[in-house]
Amino acid sequence: MALVVAAVVPIFYHSVAWLASISLSMIIIQVIDTFIGMKTKDGVKTYGPALTAALNVAVLICLAN
C-alpha cells in the first residue's frame, strides 16, 4: 500500500527522479515475485511478475531518454 501512495506523488509534484526511484523499487519487488513463482513452480506467479517487470524496465528506459 505504501508503494501505491508513493507512486501517486509524481502526479502532483512532477518529479522524474521520484518516479524513477518508485519504478525501480517496483521492478525489484516484481523480480523477487518472479523468483518466488519459480520456486513454487507456478506459471502465473512466474510469468506475470516477469512480464510486468520487463515492461516497467522498458518504460523506465523510455523515461530516462
Could you characterize the architecture of this molecule?
The N and C termini lie far apart (29 Å). The radius of gyration is 13 Å and the shape is elongated. Helix content is 91%, strand content 0%. Helix 1 runs antiparallel to helix 2 (16-40) and helix 2 (16-40) packs antiparallel against helix 3. It has one domain (2-64). By secondary structure, the chain is mainly α. The model has no long low-confidence stretch (mean pLDDT 90).
* Mean pLDDT over the full residue set: 90
Taken together, the total number of domains comes to 1
Q: What would you report as the Rg, rounded to the nearest angstrom?
A: 13 Å
N-to-C span: 29 Å
Order of helices and strands: HHH
- Helix residue percentage: over 70%
The percent range for strand residues is: under 5%
- Structural class by sheet pairing and helices: mainly alpha
Q: What composes the largest sheet? A: none
Fill in the keyword field for this structure.
65 residues; 3 helices; 0% strand
Describe the structure in brief.
The chain has 65 residues and is mainly α.
